[in-house]
Amino acid sequence: MTAGNEPLSLQNLARAYGVETDYRDNNGRRQEASPEALLAVLKALGAPVEGSEDISAARRERRLSYWRQPLDPVVVSWDGAPTDIDLRLPSDRASGTAACHLKFETGEVREWGIDLSRLPTLQQATVEGATYTVKSIALPQVLPMGYHRLTVEAAGRLNESLFISAPAFVYSPYVETEGREWGSFLPLYALYSKRSWGSGDFSDLETFMGWVSGLGGNFVATLPFLASFLDKPCDPSPYKPVSRLFWNEFYIDVTKVPEMALCPEAIALAESTEFREEIESLNRERLVDYRRGMALKRAILERLAKRLGPDSGERWHSFQGFVRERDGLLDYARFRATVEFRGETWRSWPHPLRDGLLQRKDFGKETQHYHAYVQWLADEQLARVSGRVREKGVRLYLDLPLGVHPDGYDTWRQGDLFVSGVSAGAPPDALFHKGQNWGFPPVHPQKMREQGYRYAIAYLDHHMKYADVLRVDHVMGLHHLFWVPQGMEAAEGVYVRCPADEMYAILSVESHRHQCQMVGENLGTVPPYVNNTMAQHGVHGLYVAQYEVPLDPNGGLRDIPPASVASLNTHDMPPFAAFWQGLEIERWHALGLITEAEAKTRTEDRHAAKRVLVRFLMQRGYLKGDPGDVGLVFRACLSFLADSPSRMLMVNMEDLWLETEQQNVPGVVEGHPNWQRKAWYDFETFSRMTEVVGLLRLVNQARQTGEVS
């Protein structure tokens, strides 16, 4: 190999591993990946390459591994249609017989034989001196929805594939009606009542959902409430959970735990002066203090966990049943107990602990029992909330985070799935000129396939048990994800392709099984094929008005598509009043995210956007009165969204009282209290505010009749 064709060879190797060698940025310009970044990502994916001298051999090995694998590890069939499967065999062994074995997930088995010489030949190829033939196997029947196992014995080898038979469209509640629903959004940590212990809990969620239902609302959306580290370390970000398979005990309503009434020690502690003063102190704080709040609840929950035992009758039997049925629960509890016992995260543990082998001496038995117990309680309370609100016709809208904490349970137990040496992130865009490094490891696409997507199916099932709507964060990650090599700047990252067809098939199967509607977060620089694929499978996208206001003085907001969730903003964006005043631009400048010159340009652009928005709202008849009155403009925008054909309208509760503080400023670790800010009003107060109730009644009227009075 000469120096002249070395870059081309590296690019060919990268493509063979699903690594994209270039991408289009937010301005449509082509950005080419550097050789250093490509090599780093290839090494992370397991390619046998250290430098340019290894490229040719690695490429040959990649080609050989493909042709030596007779079946793909995963096959997808849409709508149960008969499917042809490619079988790759050495040409000198492609004319014998093959035995096929199809095991349905129900346990039913179908077996049949095939004369390979009579099968159609699709392709022949010579690889490293050996000739291979691709035959086409036609399955003899229509397959029911689900996950099946196909085994083909041919050429002296036994080969197996996961066969996913999925509906082409995900589950939709709008089969017989167009649907014009509305709902409210508020993070659970920010939602609190006069009975709360410093933050919202599952009982507050149930009360809030019942209130929304009483006003005619159809759903309530909130941020993830998955397990988090809330002591040492303390990282409350809902988008960096310890696991996507377990809940956060921080949201348990301790007062509703049945063991509470049977535990005098816990009652005495909860009624003590010091304990009540701590609750009052937490309630007075404007920010959620996760560490103190969790310590307060844990003091009670640990006592309740000790109270539960074999003499607890039906409660003990129920707990034991949960432990038996909940895959991985005791393993998770042992992991959390070991983290606490050692006082360090798993990446600092010695072998064999790091490798997933824990012994009794590595953790406290009572701590293990505590973590299993609180998972049971959280699941109980979520089941109660979900069941009761469904009876009232209101749905729970949850969010599935893209990643997990690098020191969490999933990365420890599923270590082979997560790629070390790289982090997920995003390339430079209009706000983040240097790109973003999100600090969590991506999943290895090929190893996920080889595992049969057990992990993905498990975390979808975990959410969909109680979610009626599930939003997939960064849905573009189903297609490709930006990987940033360790030691490099975020702008130097590259995209790695993912088997989107297979992931959409799993989303479809799980959504139908749980009757859960699917929404994809498709904001930012998203290639057209992502939105097209979402539409092909019935996955709703987002329409966020702040993204839709053009700078063109003659422009207007884009029409709102029916298959969308319409809103004015998201948790990563400023509330409407802050957007209108340009307060987030001032914050970005103060935090060093943009320069003074950039802040000036953005402020000028914001003034131009406001003029366009006002003109648009006036022309449509929504804005009547002073265009400088932020309350009137907000109401006009809300009316415009409410009148739209979007099947779902999401109202940020904080917009209703013109909040100006942001819940999360992306890319900021210090300088803004991300994931900590409580709503300005408690539930009892805002639920009785005339302006709040009046606006939601108008939204409900518009959603039902298409008219705003």
Describe the protein in words.
By secondary structure, the chain is of the alpha/beta class. Among the domains are: 3-66, no CATH class; 80-166, Sandwich (Immunoglobulin-like), CATH 2.60.40. Helices cover 37% and strands 17% of the residues. It is built from 22 helices and 24 strands. The strands form six sheets. Strands 21-18-15-12-11-24-23-22 form an eight-stranded parallel sheet. α9 packs across α10 and α18 (583-590) runs antiparallel to α19. It is globular. It starts with 5 loop residues before the first helix and ends with a helix. The model has no long low-confidence stretch (mean pLDDT 94).
| Structural class estimated from helices and strands | alpha/beta
Low-confidence stretches: none
Please summarize the sheet with the most strands: 8 strands, parallel
Query: Helix segment count?
Result: 22
CATH third-level topology of the domain at 80-166: Immunoglobulin-like
CATH architecture of the domain at 80-166: Sandwich
Number of strands: 24
Separation, N- and C-terminal Cα atoms: 74 Å
Highest-level CATH class of the domain at 80-166: Mainly Beta
Strand percentage lies at 15-25%
Q: What spatial order of strands do you see in the largest sheet?
A: 21-18-15-12-11-24-23-22
